[in-house]
Amino acid sequence: MKYIILGAGGLGSVVGGYLAHTGQEVTFIGRQAHMDAIAKNGLEITGPKGDFCIRENLSLATHPDQVEGDFDYLIVCVKSKDMESTLADSQQLVKRVDTVLTLQNGINKEPRLEEWAGPGKVIGASTMEGATLVEPGKCINPFTGPATAYFGELNGEVTPRVEELARAFTAAKMSAKAVDNIKQVTWEKLVQIGMASSWSVANLAGGEYYFIDGITVREGAESYMQICLELLSVYRALGYEPQDFYAPMTQFRDLERGSFEEGVELLLNWGNELKAANMKSRTSMHVDFMRGRKLEVDEIIKPFIDKANELGLKIPTVVAAYRTIKILDHYLEG
Predict the structure, then answer these.
(1) What is this structure's pTM?
(2) Cis link prior to 303 (omega < 30° from 0)?
(3) Of 8, 113, 175, 273, which has the fewest CB atoms closer than 10 Å, so is most exposed?
């Protein structure tokens, strides 16, 4: 199959790199320095799956105008703030791709893609594969899991194209499933991302701290637990029950099974396990803050606040974290 990655940064490079490593034809559209480094030295990916230097099955471009041919799948991996300009620049690709999906965070991403490509071309997608671009040509894949990607039709069907995509990802060591509830998967992932992002940036921004540096402190685990319960209250009010699609990274059912203090102890134990395994990672929002980039706070956290207001729910810890992050975001430029 032929893939085009629109926005080959950290996540796009890791996903596309693993697909290319298993023989899929992949075209990257990314920044000049990154594309130049890959052309010269290959794409280096390090992480729990091993260390790779990928050169084969990769085509490189810095703008959609440079791309020729047709593609089976177009995968959007740009940040939400770059979505409009990227789609405007890529209009010529619409008729040359069969299926369009995005691995962005948020719940409004597929409707926007349908406006651009047409509803028949768009499928739902969600991933928790860890990825950071550390320098041009070099990425780390700091964490993975038993299931790191889900695909499904927006109408709830499981069709051959989503099954084909799930097989390709699984063959590339990104264990994936074709599902009939992709909208629920998307919301549950947003609970996890919203929880980790709001907690990490509000509590750890301003120092060289990793996720494990905060979650192994009791007060940090207590703060994390409170945010978790508040976001889950919104999730449940939408009619969903936690499924832990991304276990063990998500442990919603275990956290809720006992008392608040038992949940805190579970988080502390989990944090210490991560520390023992030297799992030094940060959320993508935390990385963006450290690099001086605008934050996806309105795409990741604000949907819960809006829904809570609509449903008459109180989520004060989440609101406080959102306000703190908005202050930080106000002074970021890129």
Answers:
(1) 0.90
(2) no
(3) 273
Q: Domains, the chain, ranges and CATH? A: 2-180 (3.40.50.720), 185-330 (1.10.1040.10)
CA–CA gap between residue 225 and residue 294 (Å, rounded):
26
Structure tokens at 18: 């693993």
Residue-wise pLDDT for 255-294, tens only, equals: 989 999 999 999 999 999 989 988 888 898 999 999 999 9
pLDDT, tens digit (0-9, with 9 covering 90-100), for 89-109: 999 999 999 999 999 988 889
Structure tokens at 292: 């001086």
Helix runs in 172-251, H state only:
182-204, 211-215, 218-237
Distance CA 334, CA 38 (A): 24
- Residue length, the chain? 334
Contact predicate 31/145, CB 8 Å: no
Distance between CA atoms of 193 and 129, rounded to whole angstroms? 12
Sign of CA dihedral 262, 264, 267, 271: negative
Catalytic annotation, pick one of 189, 280, 314, 326: 189
**3-state class of 136 per DSSP?**
coil
